């Protein structure tokens, strides 16, 4: 994810997302609303240039694994 400017909260949301958690579960774990999680996910999708959570997870998984 070189060059991407993610907020601390976006990184938190991404971490839970990569573990397969739904927005509601992420919201509960981070003590924020589902709407806030949705906004962070939308921002992550935009910043990574993808249109789905799955595409985001694939892209981030590849980046983390050095592929």
UniProtKB/TrEMBL annotation:
Residues 1-64 form the HTH luxR-type domain. GO terms for biological process: regulation of DNA-templated transcription. Keywords: DNA-binding, Transcription, Transcription regulation. It comes from the Bacteria. CDD domains: LuxR_C_like. GO terms for molecular function: DNA binding. PROSITE patterns: HTH_LUXR_1, HTH_LUXR_2. This is Regulatory protein, luxR family. It comes from Pseudomonas taetrolens.
């Amino acid at each position: 994810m070189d060059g991407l400017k993610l907020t601390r909260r976006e990184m938190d949301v991404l971490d839970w997302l990569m573990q397969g958690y739904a927005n509601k579960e992420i919201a509960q774990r981070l003590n924020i609303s589902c709407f806030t999680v949705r906004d962070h996910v939308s921002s992550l999708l935009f910043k990574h240039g993808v249109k789905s959570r799955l595409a985001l997870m694939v892209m981030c998984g590849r980046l983390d694994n050095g592929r």
